[in-house]
Amino acid sequence: MLHSVFAYNLRLNKLRKLHKNMIILVGGEKGGSGKSCLAQNLAVYLQQKKRDILLLDADPQGTTTDWIKERDENSDLKNIPSVQAAGNIRQVLDDLSRRYQDIIIDAGGQDSEALRSAMTIATHMLLPFRPKRRDLKTLVHVEQLIKLAKAVNPNLTSRAVITQCPTLPSQVQRILDAKDACESFGLSPLNQFTTNRNVYDDADENGLSVFEVDTDKKAIIEIEQLALEFLGEL
Asked: What is the CATH number of the domain that holds 46?
């Protein structure tokens, strides 16, 4: 009997290590780089992987909350639990992480109390940057934010992702330069990036994700590869 209990607990612990809970923060200092879009698509991706998820909107603009409202009006779509929160959300996240397997946070494009407090408890942080000078100029401040967060949350996995990239082959150097800029500030960029595709906007307007729109399979591949590289096998 004791042996069987021990074996069960050992197996359970192994499963927990393989499928640990995640608090995924999507944020940064500059608006317009697609943070809400990434948070929403990652939420659907994780839900399709049978993860028990919650989407938390900490962006004062409420973009993700509006997306959820659109989604709730479509009875053909699977419901995604969501809440809004502001200010110091560390305790809120701690409480919610006991009830949900994964929490995805849309922190918006500004340095806020919500962003800073979430960084102290998140397991993963994804920082989107467009390959544009005005986005990359924020790397100086972002580097300092991450240093402060890791002082109290040393296990935080923080990665950059280059978003809304031009699809023309002649523009590849802009993407490579943006990745080099991230590296120069100690922020490792994902190999995968997202490109300018109408499907991202089209899906967002209807409470959908790219996984629920059939018009652009390449967008699905972008999000799948991004999630796999950032979060690993689930």
From this structure: 3.40.50.300
